[in-house]
Write a structure and sequence with these properties.
alpha/beta, TIM Barrel, two-stranded antiparallel sheet, 12 helices, globular, binds glyceraldehyde-3-phosphate, binds 1,3-dihydroxyacetonephosphate, binds zinc ion
Length: 312
């Protein structure tokens, strides 16, 4: 199956009460780990590329890696998505260069500017058969290169979502309900709690419309412990409890973004490997278990958090 848009995936996810995983990819091992898990579990999957990933790996390599994965696993739908596009030009480059979905994240701009830029991307994307994710509200932490202080984090205002979706024509909407990017989402000792009331109000306003959750890594404590055990230092790394993500996946949330958990899985595996094999220096030796760690983590998300196994 060629890479596809997210339209059908989201329709089925909305109706079926599950979410599709959107995993960030930066290299071959990550693409392989994610798609091997999705392929074996017959799960739809979104592979997403940030501006930083394009700068690191080069657009063309990433597109071809994702196309190779789609050839390897023809029985599952795979979408290629731009994560946190911040300009029309970046979105256009990805639309022209083989992506099936783009995000224009103008959420840090004033409301009317967000609408105008999103609308411009939507017009170009739809003319080229590509779908668009937009964002309303601000997540705490770091949104690619946009830094937002935690205390200025802004939940999405439900009273704006109909106007925003109608005037932009976007295909899905990322909202802010208390998630944030990175591995340090909550202060140690505080109780992580997503604002399900905001989610419910937004979805009531937009019945049938796919909602997206960013910053949804759960920062598994076994990875953090392993990293700290083998020479790392990540005190107080905390993510979103998985039961809350499962609850979100059952609602109008059709896409759940996970990047930090991939980084943690790989880093824990590589640190452990080198601690146990200080004389090894062949990248295949330490990247093989790292790729397997990504696969195992993604398989767990697909089955226990997203609920999208068998939905391809
Ligand atoms: O939301 C941001 C993603 O985790 C991508 O991160 O800009 O470091 O590639 P990145
Ligand atoms: P995490 O940092 O929680 O993995 O969020 C990833 C994300 O939202 C990518 O857009
Ligand atoms: Zn994000």
């Amino acid at each position: 199956m060629p890479i596809v848009t997210t339209t059908e995936m989201f329709k089925k996810a909305y109706a079926g009460g599950y979410a599709v995983g959107a995993f960030n990819v930066n290299n071959m091992e990550i693409v392989q780990g994610i798609t091997e898990a999705a392929g074996e579990l017959k799960a739809p999957v979104i592979l997403q590329v940030s501006k930083g990933a394009r700068a690191y790996a080069n657009h063309r390599y990433l597109v071809h890696l994702v196309q190779a994965a789609a050839e390897n696993f023809p029985e599952i739908p795979i979408a290629l998505h731009l994560d946190h596009g911040d300009t029309f030009e970046l979105c256009k480059d990805c639309i022209d260069g083989g992506f099936t979905s783009v995000m224009i994240d103008a959420s840090s701009k004033p409301y009317e500017e967000n609408i105008a830029l999103t609308r411009k991307v939507v017009e170009y994307a739809h003319d080229h058969g590509v779908v668009v994710e937009a964002e309303l509200g601000t997540l705490a932490g770091v949104e690619d290169e946009v830094s937002v202080e935690a205390d200025k984090a802004m939940y999405t205002h439900p009273e704006e979502v109909v106007d925003f979706a109608t005037r932009t024509g976007c295909d899905s909407l990322a909202i802010a309900i208390g998630t944030s990017h990175g591995a340090y989402k909550f202060k140690p000792g505080t109780k992580p709690q997503l604002r399900f009331d905001v989610l419910e109000e937004c979805s009531k306003q937009l019945p049938g419309f796919p909602i997206v959750l960013h910053g949804a890594s759960s920062v598994p404590q076994e990875f953090v412990a392993e990293i700290n055990k083998y020479g790392g230092s990540m005190p107080g790394a905390i993510g979103i409890p998985e039961d809350q993500l499962r609850q979100a996946a059952r609602s109008a949330v059709c896409k759940i973004n996970i990047d930090s958990d991939i980084r943690l899985a790989m880093t824990a595996s590589i640190r452990k490997y080198f601690a146990e094999h200080p004389d090894h220096f062949d990248p295949r030796q330490y990247l093989k278990p790292a790729r397997q760690a990504v696969k195992d983590m993604v398989a767990h998300k697909i089955v226990d958090v997203l609920g999208c196994d068998g939905k391809a």
